[in-house]
């Protein structure tokens, strides 16, 4: 009868049952039989001796052997192994193996059940220590030295076990870092036309911009590049729809079969919880996506009941979603909005400052220069707002990392390119270089904002300074879409501000 507890050899008639959880033990064994990855995750958190039932420890050790050999671990294979070792009757026979196997629930939960089993084992070891100390204390031959040794041994084992676990507060092993094996790796995803990449594996990134700035197209370019190469993308969409994202990928020329093979699209409408983490963790474990896009940060935070303007809320969201995914290996890229007022925008997305502080990869701002739509050619400038690992800025000109060029054909197909920025060659007759007259560019921009319709000569006169330098600044402002030249009265060419230019965001 399942509800009858038979006394173990070390139990007396008045012994209280030690803490244990048979259901958790069966669940972890079922998960281990189902998936080698689950076995590995559990093995990192518990020891075989942590099982309360000796039969379960025997099963676990047999599973460990089979997993190490790369052989099947289903009930039939496990029955064969236990019969060979002479342990099949000891564990309850072949029917019990099928009972345990049926306990495998959603994959990705191994750590949860392993923690329960290990915690109960720790408590039992504490009870055992207390029992031995009590027995020694009541003994006529009480041995104080033995009591000290028992306590010392217990503390040393517990401390060593704690340090063996990869706890966030445990000191890191710096061997590989010192040997140069774990220096900041180069970015791997979202390639420019010259082959340089912008997104780091296992890091969190943000791509921010106004509506219709091209920020989604920029990351869909990264998705298309990876899927087209046979890779996998995880897309967590809080803003668009499956039709919208798939439609854009198909417009970029990705065949339907590759989209089905390489896109894992999710449209959550409830906050992330343990069940969701299990599902997403299983997808990452099984499909190994190189990139995860989180589309719509503001919408996602609102869904989780978090305030986008609050630093604490931003930190909670980063930990709940993007960092959870990044820890498992993929590069995470979040799509976010910026405030419309360029003067108040700063270097990061709309909302709390932690949105930038929490980025451990790179943050990018996408600024529209020429609007894009079907049948039109659009241009946006991509700037680096933050590059924590430091392997992106070296390929930027000032803060500009590239120009996003978007071309649409009559058949509604789309071609998107991220072109490397062109260095500024200096005014005519100069030796050239990469210097940008950013202070002068801001001065010219402010004059045009305050006094629209100025001719070239009037603008030069109001700006002052060397004519060649002023003309170079004007040329850059026009080329980059900050100032527009149009026909005025009597067909004279005049200057009008398209959007303000400020020096600070352009600083390297």
Automatic annotation (TrEMBL):
Keyword vocabulary terms for this entry: DNA replication, DNA-binding
Q: Where do the DNA helicase DnaB-like N-terminal domain residues begin and end? A: 18-119
Which domain of life does the protein's organism represent?
Bacteria
UniProt keyword Metal-binding present: no
Question: A Pfam family name for this chain?
Answer: AAA_25
Positions in coiled-coil regions: none
What GO cellular component entries does it have?
A: cytosol
State the InterPro entries in the record. Answer: DNA_heli_DnaB-like_N_sf, DNA_helicase_DnaB-like_N, DNA_helicase_N/primase_C, P-loop_NTPase
Could you list the residue ranges that cross the membrane?
none
What GO terms describe the biological role, i.e. biological process, of this protein? DNA replication
**Molecular function as annotated in GO:** ATP binding; DNA binding; DNA helicase activity
- Does the keyword DNA-binding belong to this entry? yes
Task: State the name under which the record lists this protein.
Answer: DNA helicase DnaB-like N-terminal domain-containing protein
Question: What is the originating organism of this protein?
Answer: Embleya scabrispora
